[in-house]
Design goal:
The protein is mainly alpha-helical. The chain has five helices and no strands. The chain has two domains: about 90 residues, Methane Monooxygenase Hydroxylase, Chain G, domain 1; about 30 residues. Helix 1 packs across helix 3 and helix 3 packs across helix 4. The chain is extended and about 60 Å long. About 0% of the residues are buried.
Length: about 120
């Protein structure tokens, strides 16, 4: 799974560089096409970064459990189970479900924005 995500991240990075290329910027069709692909990969790459950070945090706390620092060991005891639960949860839900949840949250955010905007004009 991580190999596939690394490949997606590499493509995302390549697209980011391509979108700064003057030849691409001056070609509206190409720029639009690459921008659309870039945006479609952005959520996946962000989720990948979050997942990778979670794995790094788990590794850090596992090491801390066997370290000499008592405070850090106590912190690791408290934090590690929650991180493991989050990891299991993220691994269980499918990418489609994540996109659905993200889209739902964005739609709620949009509705709240317009609702609050309209309410401010009433005040």
């Amino acid at each position: 799974m991580l190999d596939k995500l690394e490949a997606i991240k590499a493509r995302f990075d390549d697209l980011g560089v391509a979108l700064t290329n003057p030849e691409v910027v001056n070609n509206n069709k190409k720029f639009s096409q690459l921008s659309k692909e870039y945006r479609s990969l952005e959520r996946i790459v962000n989720a990948y970064h979050d997942y990778k950070k979670l794995l790094d945090d788990i590794d850090f706390y596992k090491e801390a459990l066997h370290g000499d620092d008592d405070e850090l060991r106590e912190l690791a005891k408290a934090e590690a189970p929650g991180l493991e639960e989050r990891k299991e949860f993220l691994e269980k839900i499918s990418l489609k479900q994540r996109h659905f949840v993200e889209a739902f949250l964005r739609s709620i955010k949009g509705v709240l924005y317009f609702f609050l905007k309209d309410r401010q004009s009433d005040l």
